[in-house]
Amino acid sequence: MQGFPVSLIATAFDSAGVIIAVIGLAVFAVLFVYQMVEVVTLRIMLIISV
């Protein structure tokens, strides 16, 4: 019984690490897409103004 809480805590930390990694990747992807959209929008605005 003594090893059970330790493995439970280890599993919780593992899943927390996975969740943090997924959230981090999602945020990075959103920022990357936003940056791309911003660049494309600026170029289109430049083309339209010229």
Total DSSP helices: 1
Order of helices and strands: H
Shape: rod-shaped
Mean pLDDT across every amino acid position: 88
Beta-strand share of residues = under 5%
Largest sheet: none
User: Which stretches of 5+ consecutive residues score pLDDT under 50?
Assistant: none
Question: N-to-C terminal Cα separation, in Å?
Answer: 74 Å
Number of strands: 0
Whole-angstrom Rg: 22 Å
Category by helix and strand content = mainly alpha
Quick gist of this model?
The chain is mainly α. Helix content is 94%, strand content 0%.
Plain-language structure description:
The protein has 50 residues and is an all-alpha fold. It contains one helix and no strands.
SSE layout and pairings?
Layout: H1 3-49
Features:
50 residues; mainly alpha; 1 helix
